[in-house]
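To assess whether the prediction recovers the assembly geometry, we first specified each molecular entity separately, as shown.
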Amino acid sequence: GDSVTQMEGPVTLSEEAFLTINCTYTATGYPSLFWYVQYPGEGLQLLLKATKADDKGSNKGFEATYRKETTSFHLEKGSVQVSDSAVYFCALSGGATNKLIFGTGTLLAVQP
Amino acid sequence: NAGVTQTPKFRILKIGQSMTLQCTQDMNHNYMYWYRQDPGMGLKLIYYSVGAGITDKGEVPNGYNVSRSTTEDFPLRLELAAPSQTSVYFCASSSQGGSYGYTFGSGTRLTVV
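The predicted structure of the complete assembly is given in tokenized form:
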């Protein structure tokens, strides 16, 4: 079945460092891909999405490109801030079921 | 703009007790979902609904029940609470299903002792 694999955390970075969180997927058909962010004590918020191959989603300095050839959707940010500390979830829309399937999440901790 | 509202935010139950987690959305979304989030395990789908009067099981439905009598409300019922149901529960809604993303509530943290 469809699935999402994320790099394990926690990821600890210093402020202004470059961020990459890897995400790969397995899916039939052409799913939409998403990154959600969860700040401490809160629900998940949509960060960005891409709906077809080679699309780039971007928001708040984060970006990710839908790579069909490598089945990947890696999240990147050029310069992280302490306020970016959160758990990041990669997800795909599950084909015929039309439901979101989530990765296990990656905890990002940014130190000043 | 309330979005998706969940109540209560926190609850402690004793083993064998029952409770209902409430979820309401004001966006006129047809699709609604219940997930549970366990540490390091991501989100697992419990139940979902594609419209009023229609519900279906997700990955982990055992020990839970749902109903969808209106578009706005999608309560989750726990019968005979067990320690394995200690988790954070999230309700979400969507206008057209997964392809358009979900809007999440802020969650209910449930502890069964």
